[in-house]
Amino acid sequence: MSDCLVRVAGCGDTHALAGLRASWTGEVHADDEFEWRFATWIEAEGERRTTWLALLDDLPVGMASLFEYRRMPRPGRLDSRWGYISNMFVLEPYRARGIGTALLSAIISAADDRSYVRLVLSPSEGALSFYRRMGFVTPDERVRGDRLLVRPLTRTLEARR
What we know:
Blueprint: E1 4-8, H1 14-24, H2 32-45, E2 49-56, E3 59-70, E4 81-90, H3 99-113, E5 118-121, H4 128-133, E6 149-152, H5 154-160
Parallel strand pairs: 4-5
Antiparallel strand pairs: 1-2, 2-3, 3-4, 5-6
Helix pairs in contact: 1-2
């Protein structure tokens, strides 16, 4: 989508992110207390959480979040990191316009740049086909009802060969 801007959210985006989160949960708007709690949570997450904001003509229409997990060091093995995608949401009137794809593509690109070994997420039933189209797979198809999806990252796999 050419008129959609996806960028990493900054300190000045708390109001927009809290509003999107409120919409996601079915609330009409975010009140001051919720915005404060949201800002406190974002700050406490620190550098290990990156949140992206999708804008159409400066209107916040979507968001997504990536949390970095770091594997405990192990003798004889390289240290590794992986990312958990959460809080991916696009306002209903703006869905099916490529905004979700743009958000997820930004996350995948960042994960590749950070040399993550994989991305993991737990999607809703309705989002399964979207994530599968974007390269996510179920780690063990034999586990019924498990919605955990994994996307190995190509650049990382090639570097380890």
